[in-house]
Amino acid sequence: MREAFGVFPSGVVAVAAEVNGIRTGLAASSFTSVSLQPPLVSFSVARSSKTWPHLRMADRLGLTVLAEFHGAWCRQLAGPVESRFDGVDVSTTERGAVVLQDGLARFDCSIHREVEAGDHVIVVLQVHAVDHTDSRTGALPLVFHRSRFGLTRAARGS
């Protein structure tokens, strides 16, 4: 099943917040829009995640659409908790949402609903604010495809 889904490329977002004074985050390749009215988005997280129980305690979550040059940081985000944000330019809102300054899009969200679905939880988020880069900058999204980060041929112009 994993190999079959691996042929479908997906974008990658960082989900991050400051909880009890500590920045915490994870990467998700299951981000999608859900509704424009009200503004809702979603991502899925493994029920076995050690990070999600901490993140879900946050008042607000920051979601950042990662760019092609964020691959190394995305791998860092999956590493040891104490060094996930080392050397990364982030900002934190008054309510605790953490976003990358150079992300392609940044969302300030709160949890709307969680739905258990097999070995994952689908997290539906209410969007309170959104910001994005000018599409003319030419930055491309980070893509997860066949268990690797990279670009699709279409994005490369092939």
Q: What is the secondary structure topology, with strand pairs?
A:
Blueprint: H1 2-6, E1 10-11, E2 13-19, E3 22-28, E4 32-35, E5 40-46, H2 52-55, E6 61-65, H3 71-77, E7 90-92, E8 98-100, E9 105-117, E10 120-132, E11 143-145, E12 148-150, H4 153-156
Antiparallel strand pairs: 1-11, 2-3, 2-6, 4-5, 5-10, 6-9, 7-8, 9-10, 11-12
Describe this structure in words.
The chain has helices at 2-6, 52-55, 71-77, 153-156; strands spanning 10-11, 13-19, 22-28, 32-35, 40-46, 61-65, 90-92, 98-100, 105-117, 120-132, 143-145, 148-150. The protein has a seven-stranded antiparallel beta sheet with strand order 3-2-6-9-10-5-4. With 158 residues, the protein is mainly beta. The protein is globular and about 40 Å long. A hairpin with a 2-residue loop joins strand 9 and strand 10.
Give a short summary of the structure.
The chain has 158 residues and is mainly beta. The chain has four helices and twelve strands.
Q: Report the order of strands and helices.
A: HEEEEEHEHEEEEEEH
Strand content: 35-45%
Q: Which range best describes the helical content: under 10%, 10-25%, 25-40%, 40-55%, 55-70% or over 70%?
A: 10-25%
CA distance, first residue to last residue: 28 Å
Poorly predicted ranges (pLDDT <50, ≥5 residues)? none
What is the β-strand count?
12
What general form does the structure show? Answer: globular
Mean pLDDT: 87
Structural class: mainly beta
Main beta-sheet strand count, sense and barrel state:
7 strands, antiparallel
* Widest beta sheet: strand line-up: 3-2-6-9-10-5-4
Number of helical segments? 4
- Rg calculated over all Cα atoms: 15 Å
